[in-house]
Every structure is written in structure tokens, then in C-alpha cells.
Amino acid sequence: MSLLSGSDIAELDEWITQAANSELKSFANGIARDIDAVRAAITTSWTTSPVEGQISRIKAIKRQMYGRASYPLLRRRVLLAA
């Protein structure tokens, strides 16, 4: 299932061109640098939303343990929290 049509992709290219001459220049340049990934993100139905919560949980545990314990203890705590 495609989320955007060919004309939408053309409009994206046109927007990037227009934005490159405005105060959004830096943002537009960033999108243009990685245009293949941007097109893939908006034309496919794949998402990482289900794993974002897990990533946030692991990062929170990692921040709590920073400088306090060794890697084996951090690994054990992450696995036990799952």
C-alpha cells in the first residue's frame, strides 16, 4: 500500500526546491541529503512504533545505571525488566 502517489512525490521535490530558498534552507537540505530514506518512509506502511517503547525503557535503565555497575549487571537488569 502506497501512502503517496507520483504527483505527491513531485510535490515533495518542488517543496524542497522552494524551501531551499527560504528560512527552511537547513531543513530542506537535510531532507534532500537523505531523500531516498524520506521517500521510503512516506511511501511504505512500515513503522518502528512498536519498538520505540522498548528502546525508551532500555535507555532509562541505562541512564539509571550509568557509572554504577558493570556491563553484566546492566545486561541482567535489562533482560529481567523485559
TrEMBL record:
Pfam families from the UniProt entry: DDE_Tnp_ISL3 (PF01610)
Residue stretches making up the Transposase IS204/IS1001/IS1096/IS1165 DDE domain: 11-77
Protein known as: Transposase
Species whose genome carries this gene: Bradyrhizobium retamae
